[in-house]
Amino acid sequence: MTAVQPAPTDSALKETLEDYTLRFAPRSYRKWGTGVVATSALGGIAYLADFAIGANIGISYGTGNALWGILVFAVVIFLTGLPLAYYAARYNIDLDLITRGSGFGYYGSVVTNVIFATFTFIFFALEGSIMAQGLELGLGVPLPIGYAVSTLMVIPLVIYGMKALAKLQVWTTPLWLVLMVFPFIYLVAAHPDSVGTFFAYGGADGAEGKGVNFGSVMLAAGVCLSLIAQIAEQIDYLRFMPPKTPENQRRWWTAVLLAGPGWVIFGALKQVVGLFLAVYLIANVADGATIANEPVHQFLEIYENMMPGWLAMTLAVILVVISQIKINVTNAYSGSLAWTNAYTRVTKTYPGRMVFVLFNLAIALILMEADMFSFLGDILGFYANCGIAWIAVVASDIVFNKYILKLSPKVPEFRRGMLYNVNPVGFVSMLLAAGLSILTFFGGLGGALEPYSPIVALIIAIVMPPVLAVATKGKYYLRRTDDGIDLPMFDEHGNPSDATLLCHVSGMEFERPDMIASNVPGPDGEKQYISSLSLSTDKTGEHILPEQK
C-alpha cells in the first residue's frame, strides 16, 4: 500500500516561496546566465562590516599586523572556498548537501547547519546595527527603533527567494559601487600624506616601535576568519549556475572563481579601506578615535570634505541602507535555509522556510538590542574557530579524500538512505578542530598559544579527514551505491541530468538527481520512485531502501 505523506511535504513543494530549500536545484529552474548569478552572489558582499572589522583590528594591532592578518585571512578563505564553490556550481546543491556527502553523513551535517545559521544571525545583527547607526545619524531615528526597522524591512524581499534577490542585487550594485569607491579615491588624491600616516599607524596603544609580530598577525587574522562561512552564502547563489558546457566554460569558470572564493578579494580590500579611513579619522578629526570603527561616520566625514553637509549626510545614509539591505536579505535567506534543513531532518516535518526567516531575524534583533556591536571582536574571534573547523574539513575531504586518496565518492551524495546517519571522518574531525581551537582561544592550552587558535582549527581540520578516512577505509561514506534508478545521473558534459521521474508520494515530477527508488512497491508490485524531499519527511522510514552490504 502506498503511504501518503502529510501536508508538510505539500508546503515544501511551493517552489516560488521555498526556493529548493532542502534540495538539488533543478535545471528547469536555473534560467539565469553566469553573469546574473555571479552578480547576485557578489551583491551579498556589499556589507559594511568589513570596514568595521578592518578598523577594529588596525586599532587593536596596528596597520602592519592588520595588513598581514588580512592577507592570511584572504589566502585561507580562497583556498578552502574553491573546492566548495566548484561543487556547488557543478552539482547545483548548497553547502549543507555538499557537507553531507563530504564526511559528515545525513544527520552529521545538522551541526554544521547550526554553525552556519549562527553565522547568519550574528552578521545580520552586525549589519543591522550599522544600518541603525546610519538611520540615527541621518534621520534621528533612535537606535532601538532603527534595529527594528533594519530587521523588518528585509522580510518582504526574502519571501520570494532567488527570483527577487537576483533583481535586487543586479539593480543596486552600480550605485553602491560609486558611493563606496569614490570617497577612497578622493581621499588618496586630495590628501596623499594620509597614505604615509596609514602605514605608520601602530594601533590605539601607540605601539609604533613594536612592528609586525606573529601573535598580533594571527589575532587579527582570527577576527577576519570569522567570515569564513561567507562561502556558504555565496554557494546559496552559485547552486543556481547554468550547466557547464564547452561553449560557456570560460564564462562559467570566471563566474565561479569570482563569485565563489573570489568574494574574499573584495572583502579584503574593504577591510584595508576601512582601516585606511579609520586611521584618517583618528589623525584628522576631533574625537575621531571614538567613531573611527563605525562605517557610517567613516564615509560621512569623507563625503563632507567633498560636498555640502546635507548632501553628504544624504549619500551616507543611502550608502548604508543599500549596503545593509543587500547583505541582510542574503543573511536572512541563507539563515532560513540552514534552520529549515536542520529542523526538517531532525523532526521529519517541514514547517516552511518563512517560519525560520522570522526565527532567525528575532535572534538577530535580540543581539542588536543587547548592543553586540560593542564587543564585536570577541564574538567574531570565538566564532571563527567553529567556522574554520567546518569549512576546512569539507574542503579537506573534497581535495584529499575524493581526489587524491579516492576514499570518498567524488560525486557528492546527499539523499537520505544513500548515506549513513553519521560519518566519523568529517564529524569527528570538525568536533576535534572546533573543540581544541576554542580551548586554545580561551587560554586552556596556555597563554602563549591563545592567539593561534585559528591555526589550531585549520591544521586539525585539514589533517584529520584523510587520517580518519584511511583509518575507517572510507566505509562510512555510502550506505548504498545503487539508488535503484536505471537512468544516468549526468549528461554528456557531466552536468546533472534533466530527465524527470514521478514521485509517487507527492505526485509531482522531479529531475533525476533528486530521485531515488522507493522501498514501497506500487499496487501491482512495480518499482516506484520518491523525491529526496518527500523522503526527508518520511517519519516511518518505510520508503528507505535497505543497506547494501
Task: Give a written overview of the molecule.
- This protein folds into 2 domains: 1-31 and 484-549, no CATH class; 32-447 and 456-472, Hydantoin permease, CATH 1.10.4160.10.
- With 549 residues, the chain is mostly helical.
- The protein is globular, with a radius of gyration of 24 Å.
- The chain starts with 6 loop residues before the first helix and ends in a 13-residue tail after the last helix.
- Helix 3 (34-43) crosses helix 10, helix 7 (110-139) packs antiparallel against helix 18 and helix 12 crosses helix 20.
- The chain is built from 23 helices and 4 strands.
Could you list some keywords that capture this structure?
Hydantoin permease, 23 helices, 549 residues, 4 strands, two-stranded antiparallel ribbon, mainly alpha, two-stranded antiparallel sheet
User: Which class best fits the helix and strand makeup?
Assistant: mainly alpha
Largest sheet: 2 strands, antiparallel
Q: Kindly provide the name of the CATH class of the largest domain.
A: Mainly Alpha
CATH topology of the largest domain: Hydantoin permease
> What proportion strand?
under 5%
- Which architecture name of the largest domain does CATH use? Orthogonal Bundle
Helix-strand sequence: HHHHHHHHHHHHHHHHHHHHHHEEEEH
Supply the number of structural domains.
2
Distance between the termini: 27 Å
Uncertain residue ranges: 1-9, 11-19
- The coarse silhouette is globular
Level of helix content?
55-70%
Report the CATH superfamily of the largest domain.
Hydantoin permease
Report the total helices. Answer: 23
